Amino acid sequence: MFTSIFPACYSGRWPHIHFEVYPSLSAATNVANKIATSQLALPKATCDLVYATTGYESSITTLSQVSLATDMVFSDGASLELATMTGSVASGLTATLTVAV
Question: How far apart are CA 53 and CA 55, in angstroms?
């Protein structure tokens, strides 16, 4: 579990959050202990809600120019990397994704 801000959408990439996996919290102090690096894709409906708020105006246009199918990473299939979202923009969103390590 970690806390992040909702990412903007940038050219050529679907909105996503990178993460690294470590065997323990204490091991996370050294990048050499990293087990895996991956990313989770954010659902379009949630992106649309967030990008309608102040500060994300440019992401509306950028998101309209990309899809999961055209993203250079997710284009091979994003079904295992697409997060489930709960919450609201006003009170905070939670992205959930089960990842096999």
Answer: 6
Q: Select from 17, 22, 21 the least CA-distant residue to 82.
A: 17
CA pair distance 18, 22, nearest whole angstrom: 14
Radius of gyration of the CA atoms of the chain, in A: 15
Residue-level pLDDT at 42:
97
pTM of the model: 0.88
Three-state secondary structure call for residue 21: strand
Give the whole-angstrom CA distance, residue 28 versus residue 59: 32
Q: Which parts of the chain sit beneath pLDDT 50? A: none
Q: Which amino acid is at 64?
A: S
Give the strand pairing for 92-96 and 36-41. unpaired
Residue type, 92: G
